[in-house]
C-alpha cells in the first residue's frame, strides 16, 4: 500500500517522463496512470508506473515508466484459457533498461527492443536516469502473473 502523496507524485513523475519521451497524454490519461508498488511499500526501488492504452482479448499496448534503478520483480505470464500466456515486446523510449530473461541480461537503449516469449521468467531494472518503455503484447492478464517473491501483491492499493 502506498500513500496518496506517493501515488500522486509517481503519477506526476510518470507524466513528466512520458512527455520527455514525446508521448502526449490525452484527456484524463494522467489520472489513469497506474502506480504499482507490488505491496512491498518500497516504490522507489521496487515497482513501476503503467499507462494502458488498450487491452483486448487479442492485443495490449501500454507505457511503463520506472524511477532510476527501480526494479519490476521477477515474474512470468502463464498460459490461460487455451493461450500460451502473454508474449510481450519491450521497446525502450527513454533512459535505459536491463531485462533479465531466463537468466540472460539484455540491455536496451532508446530505439532498441526485445520480445519475451510466453511463460518465461523475467524481470527488469531501469538505468540511472530511469526508463520509459513501450510494451506491445498479446492480451494482458495481470491478475494471473506469477511472481517468484510470494510477498508480491499485483493489484495496487492506495491509502484512503
Distance from first to last alpha carbon:
10 Å
Shape: globular
User: What is the rounded Rg?
Assistant: 15 Å
SSE order, one letter for each helix or strand:
HEEEEEEEEE
Helix content class: 10-25%
- Parts with pLDDT < 50 across at least 5 consecutive residues: none
The count of DSSP E runs of length 2 or more, i.e. the number of strands, is 9
The averaged pLDDT comes out at 95
Strand percent estimate: 35-45%
Biggest sheet overview = 9 strands, antiparallel
Number of helices: 1
Structure class: mainly beta
Q: Describe it for me?
A:
This protein is mainly beta. The chain is 11% helix and 41% strand. The chain has one helix spanning 4-20; strands at 34-36, 48-55, 60-66, 71-76, 88-101, 104-108, 113-116, 122-137, 146-147. Strands 1, 2, 3, 4, 5, 6, 7, 8 and 9 form a 9-stranded antiparallel β-sheet that branches. A hairpin with a 2-residue loop joins β5 (88-101) and β6 (104-108). The protein starts with a helix and ends in a 13-residue tail after the last strand. The model has no long low-confidence stretch (mean pLDDT 95).
Summary of the model, kept short:
With 160 residues, this protein is mostly beta strands.
SSE layout and pairings?
Elements: H1 4-20, E1 34-36, E2 48-55, E3 60-66, E4 71-76, E5 88-101, E6 104-108, E7 113-116, E8 122-137, E9 146-147
Antiparallel strand pairs: 1-2, 2-3, 3-8, 4-8, 4-9, 5-6, 5-7, 5-8
Amino acid at each position: 500500500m502506498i500513500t496518496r502523496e506517493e501515488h500522486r507524485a509517481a503519477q506526476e513523475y510518470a507524466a513528466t517522463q512520458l512527455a520527455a519521451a514525446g508521448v502526449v497524454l490525452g484527456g484524463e490519461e494522467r489520472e489513469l496512470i497506474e502506480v504499482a508498488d507490488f505491496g512491498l511499500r518500497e516504490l522507489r526501488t521496487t515497482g513501476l508506473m503503467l499507462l494502458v492504452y488498450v487491452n483486448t482479448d487479442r492485443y495490449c499496448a501500454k507505457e511503463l515508466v520506472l524511477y532510476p534503478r527501480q526494479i519490476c520483480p521477477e515474474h512470468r505470464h502463464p498460459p490461460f484459457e487455451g493461450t500460451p500466456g502473454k508474449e510481450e515486446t519491450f521497446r525502450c523510449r527513454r533512459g535505459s533498461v536491463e531485462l533479465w530473461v531466463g537468466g540472460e541480461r539484455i540491455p536496451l537503449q532508446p530505439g532498441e527492443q526485445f520480445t519475451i516469449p510466453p511463460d518465461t521468467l523475467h524481470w527488469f531494472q531501469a538505468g540511472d536516469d530511469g526508463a520509459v518503455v513501450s510494451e506491445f503484447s498479446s492480451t494482458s492478464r495481470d491478475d494471473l502473473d506469477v511472481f517468484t517473491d510470494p510477498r508480491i501483491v499485483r493489484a495496487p492499493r492506495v491509502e484512503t
